[in-house]
Amino acid sequence: GEISLVSKVDRTRMNVKREYAKISNVVKVVIEQDKTSTELEFDTAGHILKHIVDYMNHCKGTEEPAPKELPNLEKINNIERIWGLYCGKRTVIKDFMWKVAKNRRDLELLTQAADQYAIKELLHYCLSMYATFLGFCPLEDLDRILDPNIVNGKLLPMRKKISKSKSKREAKRKSSAISPRNKTKRACSKKRSDNQTNAQIFRGEDSSREIQLLLQLEAQGERARNLQRLNNNERKYSRDPDDIPSSSRSSGK
Which of 105, 146, 198, 242 is least buried, going by the fewest C-beta atoms within 10 A? Predict the structure, then answer.
């Protein structure tokens, strides 16, 4: 028998054999609990539901396990070719997934549906497609490879905001190249920064704990200076008794 899968979004209706639909664990549970059910709603758009039904009809009730790892092919710069090598002899799946992935928004919605309705291997293929895009695309395309506005597989021109930020990062990287002159500049900048920090503390712009610490250090310094003066006077008087004031000599008699 067949069961009707209906989109909640646009009421698109697709019929599929009950045994084929059971590759979704959610559908399988519903069918086994209510064997008389003839309809099941899917919380996704009609065109995404069609992709799911096409996948079910291809699998015929049994999902073929997806490859576990992407190929290590750093010298190949063609993503479509890498995807083909990943899929191997699964040519139908390769073409099916590549067609879906050309529209980045459809790939995102299909991934969500595969996760929501527990279609294990379809979810694995969707995630592997993302991994292929991100793992093997040229570095300059990384910011726009998953742009949801891509509908035909062709990358859109780089957005001005991204282009501007890239230019700033590149300029900053070049300006921060280490050289003796830059080292001197950095040292001076650090010294200015330390002076600014001290000024902020004395202006009360930092925590009270640091202010108290500075006051304590200042008091300790003042005490140390006073002790140093007394020691200097004592040494001076011990070397030349005539220099001791008369009041001090009279008091000592």
Answer: 242
Query: From CA 146, how far away is CA 104, in angstroms rounded?
Result: 6
Angle in degrees, 0-180, between the axes of helices 79-87 and 120-136, rounded to the nearest 10: 150
Q: Report the side by side order of strands in the sheet with 13-17.
A: 13-17, 2-7, 39-42
Residues 6+ apart with CB under 8 A from 204: 211
Q: What is the residue-wise DSSP string for 19-62?
A: HHHTTSHHHHHHHHH-TT--EEEESS-HHHHHHHHHHHHHHTT-
DSSP 156: P
Q: What are the pLDDT tens digits along the chain (253 aa)?
A: 899 999 999 999 999 999 999 999 999 999 999 888 899 999 999 999 999 999 999 999 999 888 877 776 666 778 888 898 889 889 999 999 999 999 999 999 999 999 999 999 999 999 999 998 888 888 778 878 889 999 998 888 876 655 566 666 677 776 765 555 555 555 555 555 555 444 444 444 444 555 555 566 666 666 666 676 776 666 655 555 555 455 544 444 4
**97 within 8 A of 119, measured Cβ to Cβ:** no
Exposure letters 41-71 (e unless 16+ CB within 10 A, then b): ebebbbbbbebbbbbbeebeeebeebeeeee
